[in-house]
Design a protein that fits this description.
The radius of gyration is 11 Å and the shape is globular. The chain has three helices and no strands. By secondary structure, the protein is an all-alpha fold. It starts with a helix and ends with a helix. It has one domain.
Length: 54
């Protein structure tokens, strides 16, 4: 996964009004695509890594 992918995905989520996904499982229950907490946590980790490597 490229470093820019998590940043681009987060920007697109903001653009579409999804906001920040957290590890509280609220996003998992509301997600129209049924994204699991495992994938949400991975995206959050990758996003933080990408932000700190800029």
């Amino acid at each position: 996964m490229s470093v820019s992918f998590p940043l681009a995905m987060a920007a697109k989520m903001d653009e579409l009004g999804f906001g920040n996904c957290t590890n509280t499982r609220a996003c998992e229950m509301e997600c129209p695509k049924h994204v699991t907490i495992d994938h949400i946590a991975r995206l959050n980790r990758e996003y933080l890594k990408a932000r700190f490597s800029e």
